[in-house]
């Protein structure tokens, strides 16, 4: 919650800025990619660690005014979490983790506000469509994969999040970005074994991209 307050405060500050402006008055298209650090948050998920994966996809920037743009995106996002195993001394053994992989096609619809030329903050809803789910009991090797059939899954096919982030665009179109997304509802289906379990997606993303 503190993270959300910090990002929201930065976004509101941007809305009141009078000196900022976008670097383009035309629609721009681009590509992006980066690293994900994802996990589930909630009262029932204390013994989980983040899964490290990646994201890659397409981005557009549609100017609304001198300093505000609409930024829709579509990208693959590797998410999920690591289940922490304990050794005989009740200490977490990071070499024995089980990785729960949840992969999505994410579609954020962001409002982007420039603080100064090149530097911007962004916020908006994000809609996720689950495309793959599996356990990996040997995440550091090629074995141990167990794909979960849709009929046996306890995880919803659709997820809604709020996305908050910042980016800096250099002359020529290259940009770097950082983003935090927080799930708004539990990922687990109703009328299943996990009904009532509090588990929401949480993802930190760091990446680079290029606007054409």
UniProtKB/TrEMBL annotation:
<feature type="signal peptide">
    <location>
        <begin position="1"/>
        <end position="22"/>
    </location>
</feature>
<feature type="domain" description="Outer membrane protein beta-barrel">
    <location>
        <begin position="20"/>
        <end position="188"/>
    </location>
</feature>
<dbReference type="InterPro" id="IPR025665">
    <property type="entry name" value="Beta-barrel_OMP_2"/>
</dbReference>
<protein>
    <recommendedName>
        <fullName>Outer membrane protein beta-barrel domain-containing protein</fullName>
    </recommendedName>
</protein>
<keyword id="KW-0732">Signal</keyword>
<dbReference type="Pfam" id="PF13568">
    <property type="entry name" value="OMP_b-brl_2"/>
</dbReference>
